[in-house]
Amino acid sequence: MTNKTQRCYILKLVKTEDKQQILTFINGGTDHATPSSAELIEEDPNDPYEERGLIFPSGEINWNCPCLGGMASGPCGTEFKDAFSCFHYSKEEVKGSECLEQFRAMQECMQRYPELYPQEDEKVQEYERSSETKQTSQDSASAETSFLQSL
Amino acid sequence: MLKCRTVWKKLAPLARASSTLCRQNVRRAGLNNGKMPSCVPAGHMSTGPAGGGRENQMYFLLVGVTCVGGGVYAYRTIKGDHQRYQDRIDEISSRPHKQATEEPAIPIQSEPPAVAEPEPQAALSPEEPSPPAPDVEILAPIETTEPPPADEPMVEASAEEAAEPSAAPVVEEEPSPPSEPSPAELTEPPPAPVAESEPTAAAAESLAAEPTEPQPEESAEEPVVEAPPEEAAEPSAAPVVEEEPSPPSESSPAEFTEPPPAPVAESEPTAAAESLAAEPTEPQPEVVAESGDSLPASLQFPSHTPYLLIGGGTASFAAARSIRARDPGAKVLIVTDEPVPPYMRPPLSKELWFSDDPSVTETLRFKQWNGKERSIYFQPPSFYISAEELDGAENGGVAVLTSKTVVHMDVRGNKIKLDDNTEISYDKCLIATGGVPRSLQVIERAGEEVMKRTTLFRKVEDFKSLDKVSRNIKSITIIGGGFLGSELACALGRRSTECDLEVIQMFPEKGNMGKVLPEYLSNWTTEKVKKEGVKVISEALVKSVVCKDEKLEIQLKDGRLVKTDHIVAAVGLEPNVDLAKSAGLEVDSDFGGFRVNAELQARSNIWVAGDAACFYDIRLGRRRVEHHDHAVVSGRLAGENMTGANKPYWHQSMFWSDLGPDVGYEAIGIVDSSLPTVGVFAKATSKDTPKAATEKSGTGIRSESETEDTAVSPVASPTPAPPAVLQKDEYGKGVIFYLRDKVVVGIILWNVFNRMPVARKIIKDGEQHVDLNEVAKLFNIHDD
């Protein structure tokens, strides 16, 4: 019988030739109750080797982010980059309100490739909706992610 | 003359020494013989021959021996010098001899009538003693001793694949003398271009210019117009070649029939030389161009592309995407030998088999665990632009040339040649040729009847044919117990319940995934595979296969006999390094594939990614990885580096495998069962399944959910879940650490999903952890 408050595990040592293969069976919940004492090296936010998310530490857009899918690389990639850059750097009260031209151009391009960019109408609606609501700079990151999700 | 001088220089000290010796001895002898003037003191010298005659003989002997010794030394020196000279000649002639060719060019161009004869050609060359390359030409017609040894290296060189730069120019030497006599038959103007092309024999590609001059004569205007723009794309040959088409066009077209067969015929014996293959092949695009007006425009390929990607698989597509993202308006050309645009491979052995759609082999669409449907193709055809539009596209694009194989790569000239002899030059090139499934020797030896009942599974067409075959037979055997073999076995095993199909899987290991999973897990996995309806034959080595009465009989080494209708061989991948020879790229002897550095670069302007790349992993050492996510990661990295990033391989790729809907694992790093392992397991719940994993992350393909998760913080804590039904499995869920020198180099997450960033971090740190149980805690494999 095992005491739930005490650490309890079955340790099985399996030796195959000269390879040691250790098996540990842990009791759900109790054995891993205490936080880990293993130490991980602190991440360097400016590590040049690391893969980045959508926005680089410098504030620039990472067009190569997997999260963008094929948006920046497809036939409408240039239009998308123009529109999204404008939106990203927009300092207007209603973020991206001065970018209507770019978005229109992007929409036009996307309409020519319905197979690649389905549901453009929804996208445009989403954009219009998001540009109507007031966005603060704090919300800009979330605004961008929601904008991307709507694409 | 030079020879004599160096020889004399060497012998001079010796000569001086021996002459002094001789003189001294003569003096002494003379002294003894009394022939010398008596001004020499009559007193006996300490070295004087007191003994008289016998001493004389001694001295004569000494002198004789010295002279003989000197003579022998002199002989050997001369011989050695000759040999060294010969070696030097060979070595120099193997180097480009532009300088030498320029010099003969000047005398040739100033004396066009004299050039009509091949002899003045050879005679002109002796005027230039210093450039060693014409020396070879002198030696060829004049000295009889030289051509045989010179021919031998040439013949040998042509016997090898002449992609090696040392061989190419040597081989070129041979056809240029023979082609001289043949033009001699013609009137003056045609020999003029042939002779003019002689100086350009330096660069491999400009030899191709030789027949191109006669060829434009075939239809005077069109190809001449086409040849300059085409060759203009080849920078090294451009200035020389452009002069050439003009003289031939002036000459009478009647002669054109002779030069083409002559150079072509001459190049036949050296046809093994790939650079010479350019010779007869160059005419052909001209021929096509001649009747080119009637051919459809699709045969007009771009002659130059800034970014060339060889291979149309996952790595190539990832690179294309990366390049387009980073270089605005980039023009990318993908060349693939398959007839279809880039697609992903994992569903071919997993999801596509579970599809309910009867037309799946046509649509190639599959339903992911989360219900979303998608095609195996990365993008629909409208994503790509056509090859001929690529040049003119304002915003660039990605073009795909299907069903084309790259047969030759000229690194110096920055261009490749396709199997239809088209040449395409590039600025940056990626080699992502992947590999070819390994075959079994026993099957290849078994003959046609066995071979046609065997599938080597890798491509879309293999999936289509296997799907068709599996519906019409009674028994199928999969040879191979790794990822592909086990996945196919499970997929076919599931199908066996619907149709009456016996599925057998055999492999030499003790259990499925024997080379990857620790033994206890491998055994457990084998049981799971058996539950999917597969007859597993472990520790099976195939001895022979024969075809009897339309059935295959597989004889195993331990005596067992297995009768089946069809075989699927899943015994590994042979990386495709066909281009290594012509491109002069290094091939790794340990892992196979092209050897590249940590930035995936093989040589300037050439990168390699995917299955074919043997790269240096800063953390884990040199390796070659054959997984989907690695193809994506390495392809993306190569694309970044092709656009100037200079980043090393750093983001560790992962892989995954599902054995049915209930069991799946994800892994990262070096996962080799020969390493010591530590496993930490807990009971599984129904949430711990691949299906639940993808539903939670909202994505379909596992690798997408892992790689696109980078924006989220690494140590994700799971939301508390409602109590779930406990599974009865002993190895429900857990983490297995693979250790090398006490450092974790690989991790398997067994039915633990969406924790890959933690695993990646642990491997990246490369720390020696004392208690791995503490490390396992980081994965939060429990839900409280």
From TrEMBL, chain A:
Residues 76-112 form the CHCH domain. Residues 120-132 have a biased composition (Basic and acidic residues). Keywords: Disulfide bond, Mitochondrion, Oxidoreductase, Protein transport, Redox-active center, Translocation, Transport. Its main location: mitochondrion. It comes from the Eukaryota. One of its GO terms (biological process) is mitochondrial respiratory chain complex assembly. It is found in: Mitochondrion intermembrane space. Signal peptide: none annotated. GO terms for cellular component: mitochondrial intermembrane space. This is Coiled-coil-helix-coiled-coil-helix domain containing 4. It comes from Cyclopterus lumpus (Lumpsucker). The lineage of its organism: Eukaryota, Metazoa, Chordata, Craniata, Vertebrata.
From TrEMBL, chain B:
Monomer (oxidized form). Homodimer (reduced form). Upon reduction with NADH, undergoes dimerization and forms tight, long-lived FADH2-NAD charge transfer complexes (CTC) resistant to oxidation. Also dimerizes with isoform 3 preventing its release from mitochondria. Interacts with XIAP/BIRC4. Interacts (via N-terminus) with EIF3G (via C-terminus). Interacts with PRELID1. Interacts with CHCHD4; the interaction increases in presence of NADH. Coiled coil: none annotated. GO terms for biological process: apoptotic process; mitochondrial respiratory chain complex assembly; positive regulation of programmed cell death. Its cofactor is FAD. It comes from Cyclopterus lumpus (Lumpsucker). SMART domains: AIF_C. The lineage of its organism: Eukaryota, Metazoa, Chordata, Craniata, Vertebrata. Belongs to the FAD-dependent oxidoreductase family. Functions both as NADH oxidoreductase and as regulator of apoptosis. In response to apoptotic stimuli, it is released from the mitochondrion intermembrane space into the cytosol and to the nucleus, where it functions as a proapoptotic factor in a caspase-independent pathway. Release into the cytoplasm is mediated upon binding to poly-ADP-ribose chains. The soluble form (AIFsol) found in the nucleus induces 'parthanatos' i.e. caspase-independent fragmentation of chromosomal DNA. Binds to DNA in a sequence-independent manner. It catalyses: A + NADH + H(+) = AH2 + NAD(+). It is found in: Cytoplasm, Perinuclear region; Mitochondrion inner membrane; Mitochondrion intermembrane space; Nucleus. Residues 638-765 form the Mitochondrial apoptosis-inducing factor C-terminal domain. The chain crosses the membrane at residues 58-75. GO terms for molecular function: DNA binding; FAD binding; NAD(P)H oxidase H2O2-forming activity; protein dimerization activity. Its main location: cytoplasm. The gene is aifm1. This is Apoptosis-inducing factor 1, mitochondrial.
